[in-house]
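Box S1 | Example of a co-folding query
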Amino acid sequence: MEEHIDNLKEKLLAKIENRTAVVAIIGLGYVGLPLAIHFVGKGFPVVGFDLDGNKIDKLHRGTSYIKHVSIEPLTKAMSEARFDATEDFSRLAAADCIVICVPTPLTETLDPDLKYLIQTADTAAAHVRQGQLIVLESTTYPGTTEELLLPRLAVDGRRAGRDFFLAFSPEREDPGNTKFNAGNTPKIVGGVTPNCLEAASELYSTITRVVPVSTTRAAELTKLLENTFRSVNIALVNELKVLAHKMGIDIFEVIEAAATKPFGYTPFYPGPGLGGHCIPIDPFYLSWKAREYDFATRFIQLAGEINVSMPTYVVQRTQEALNNRQLSLKGSSLLILGMAYKKNVDDDRESPGYVVMKMLIDAGAAVMYNDPWIPNLKPTRKHNFTMESIPLSAQLLASIDAVIIITDHDDYDYKWIVQQAPLVIDTRNATRNLTNNREKIIKA
Ligand SMILES: NC(=O)c1ccc[n+]([C@@H]2O[C@H](COP(=O)([O-])OP(=O)(O)OC[C@H]3O[C@@H](n4cnc5c(N)ncnc54)[C@H](O)[C@@H]3O)[C@@H](O)[C@H]2O)c1
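Box S1 (continued) | Returned holo structure for nicotinamide-adenine-dinucleotide
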């Protein structure tokens, strides 16, 4: 007999409370892997699912594939039979809570690419059973949970809120952030029904403070507001950086001064362009959906244009700096420092370093790179570089025409780099504390 949803909910809440609820994580990447560690840390039995057999093998061997994530807690939990990683999706049937963390990239025409999500939904639909909680964490446009996920899961007459629980809770993971993680960042949760909201809130409240919102769409838009806010503000300082340079003013000095205002101002920093899986991509999910409402998201468009133009600015400034030393870009020998999209992470997705590198090579420069976090560059959908990180040495730095700092990893000894290199193009203000050799530094 079909059980009433209230009974199903009480059973699920009890299982969450006493930590016997089995938590399944689909997609063990930058988001899913740390999340699995958090749930294991809270005492839940966890099963991680991924299509990538290499990742599953590595987890079984106790090796992390994300440099800043230690998987020791998972290895220990695995030895106690409290964690497993698998490609066998039929095991989803044994889960009580299923959390989806698969990629949501853009297509080449900047439209949402939901193939991973659709695939996951169809796979999960084959195994969903009564009383399960399913939560989507992947960043996406308002409406995805109810328009795309719900109909795919509601097969065989099953209904969300009557037979299973469905919610959206955006991931706010900030890879490499040593201060904030899933344990001390509040979690936004929106449910398809009040029972769905309650079930999902109960699960996440074991990890952190939950902020309930009225619908899954409000939760979806909350995430996009956060990332659009970042994209727009970064674009603003990127534009002002170019103007400040023309005015002979140091934008970084200005930002630090403005940041002393204790209210009404939040500092954002310019750079060589946007990178990563989130900020360059997420706002376009919203622009795409806005078109359905005949609405143009002008801030998103403008911010996108400015941020995308930043690598060109870096190349122009490099060219000027070389020119001032009687050198041309063509034929010059350049070293890019940092190909990760931000400091202290091993993630080079959408990194502006690739765009800068391509423009420099197209202009006839010989380009090498060093990045302790990215040992080699592999061809991607957008770029075709096969290169290895070159070890830094005094000899190497003295032999090239300029160093371009794209990513300000903490591992670098900037003082030493500036001492050895003839010219340093600094896109991150990484050399701000240096007092010697300042004439060699060009901020860009
Ligand atoms: N990386 C971040 O900083 C961050 C922060 C907040 C939100 N997000 C969002 O979280 C989601 C995941 O991002 P990520 O950075 O962890 O991506 P990722 O590429 O690091 O990891 C995704 C994982 O999902 C796996 N996968 C793909 N399709 C699958 C399927 N059908 N079944 C099972 N596994 C599948 C991939 O093999 C990969 O291991 C995205 O929507 C992203 O926008 C990312």
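The chain has two domains: 5-214, 231-443. The first strand starts at residue 23 and ends at 26.
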